[in-house]
Design brief:
alpha+beta; five-stranded antiparallel beta sheet; 4 helices; 9 strands; 25% helix
Length: 169
């Protein structure tokens, strides 16, 4: 189970960087992550939150620095897998990366663009699209890609809800 969780994380956007000293670097973060520790979760968690993988991020001394979650939600044409790194406060999005999507070319596929993904950094979950009334930090959806944009937001919010429901991780 541990090996499988680490493999999922390594293959989904966290990679081993040997250019300097060995360390893991998470896409979109300025602070290197020295390692991760898998967080166990149930099938019920997977279904309720769209959760596929969960880990604590660790600094060089092994101190937890945040959370790396892989969640998924249904877009217009496909399941969209998202890697979200949350800060230690369990609410601040440190980085977001769309790992998998098969959305409509030139429309929904724009969720993989750097500009769309970068806007999530620093936002406080729960999130919402600007066009959706209600509570939460607003993010810009993509014109012509509202369903795909909303799926990314739903995936991030699923990870946020998982963290809020599980104290002591």
């Amino acid at each position: 189970m541990v090996v499988a969780s680490v493999a999922v994380i390594l293959l989904s956007g966290v990679w081993y960087n040997t250019a300097r000293q060995p360390q893991l670097t998470v896409h979109g973060t300025s602070t290197p992550v020295e390692g991760t520790r898998p967080i166990p979760f149930t099938q019920e968690d997977a279904e309720a939150y769209g959760l596929e993988a969960a880990s604590r991020t660790l600094d060089a001394s092994g101190t937890p620095t945040g959370y790396l979650l892989i969640t998924a939600a249904t877009g217009y044409r496909s399941r969209i897998r998202v890697q979200t790194v949350f800060a230690e406060d369990r609410r601040t999005v440190v980085s977001l990366r769309v790992l998998y999507q098969q959305e409509t070319e030139y429309l929904g596929t724009r969720i993989t663009g750097e500009e769309f993904q970068a806007q999530f950094a620093g936002r406080l979950a729960p999130l919402r699209l600007w066009t959706v009334p209600g509570e939460g930090s607003p993010v810009d959806g993509l014109s012509g890609s509202t369903v795909s944009s909303q799926a990314v937001v739903k995936a991030v919010n699923g990870g946020y809800r998982f963290l809020q429901q599980h104290d002591g991780l």
